[in-house]
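for ur thesis appendix - BlaI/MecI/CopY family transcriptional regulator. copy paste whatever u need, i formatted it the way the template wanted (i think)
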Amino acid sequence: MATLGELERATMDLLWESPEAATANELRELLAQANPAAGTGDGRGLAVTTILTVLSRLEKKGLVERERNIRPHRYRAITSKAEHTAELMHEVLGSVNDREAVLARFVGSVSATEAETLRRLLGGV
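the 3d part is after this line
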């Protein structure tokens, strides 16, 4: 699973939060509202072609799907943010030789509430 750049992550966050598919223009407007300083530096904001490029990359990464039956095309996240995050965690665990050490370090850094959640999810182990 590929990691996300800053603009890809911001775009995915919008798609994960939205129950509806969105057009590139809608996403561009939402990104501008979320971060008015982003863009070209001259107050014009991000170009819609930039957003379309980002969406194309996200589609190639298997994170979004494009509704091609209408114009303008609409985009939606294929998986949830939780599913994506879990995949990233699996990828990281798969890339180390000592998974137990990584898991121990992770578990040692969680809050008491998170530890209780882990116990419950693991069936009281």
